Amino acid sequence: MTDTKLRFPAEWEPQAAILIAWPHAATDWAERLGDVEETYIALVAAITRFQPVLICVADDDVETYAEIRLRSNRVDMTHVRFVTVAYDDTWLRDSGPITLRAGNHFRLLDFCFTAWGGKFEAGQDDRLVEALSTQGVFGNTPRQRIEFALEGGAIETDGDGTLLTTWQCLHERHPGLDRAELSAKLADWLQQDRVLWLDHGALEGDDTDAHIDTLARFAPGNTIVFQACDDAADSHYADLKAMADDIAALRSKDGQPYRLFPLPWAKPVWDAGRRLAASYANYLIINGAVLMPAYGDANDASAAAVLAQAYPGREVVPVPCRALIWQNGSLHCITMQLPQGLL
């Protein structure tokens, strides 16, 4: 592939930074802000061991407070940069930019963000990419606005022209389009050669309508890491077994089965009678490491061992994410990687 052709890089390719947004009292985290701040501090501490982090803050007060909290936890502030911008909430996987690259040239894809089909207010989040771009955060990188609802958590690429997604999510967003039409649009905008679809797989407590990043992820070497369920008594068992069968039937570009790495199943996490989505598949890949959502479960260590096998040469760093799943997402959902050279 030449450097003149735009492509959608895999998450494990070199990164310039991770983009996040700091939670504050005007976001949905207000009720449990102290708990979620601890997760963000642990996340920033983990990222800055390996690379920079770009933190969106709502105003000067939020920036001052975030900096005090991070410094008091001995975070390496030389790898932290703040940018002031308005946002409704902190799910930057879905409201942040999707970046294509051609050599040292980039394009920011700014898809319409509807808060997962209009479930929440998202006016500021939908303007986030434009606001960051206008401030010059991405230099003179062109931004392409696409009036089509698509979240970053709904798509997964291997960096070599194959996209993985779920029918449930994309059909929910665009009920008037069939699979062939959706595949053609995604392949065109995201510079993909083919689109693979999963017909099964959904988690209770997930309000994204089955985002792929809670279910199955590409890894180097024609590999797929996926969330399995080995508890026949669990309500997820049949659907995740069917999803595992879907994944086993997929073939790489050269017609071979993928190498498969099933992740262990965490015990049910409940909050006020509501099941929360504790998926180990919602991990974040950064330079030299994989940051794994940890839930205080006996299977945290087993999940870390699986990820170490799937991503050899990378350190697996657990980040406590029990606080995040209260708002129906986890580690990957609150982050967006920015490819090396973009900043």
From TrEMBL:
PANTHER family: AGMATINE DEIMINASE-RELATED
UniProt organism field: Thermomonas beijingensis
One matching Pfam family: PAD_porph
Keyword ATP-binding: no
Superkingdom, taxonomy of origin: Bacteria
Keywords: Hydrolase
Name listed for the protein in its UniProt record: Agmatine deiminase family protein
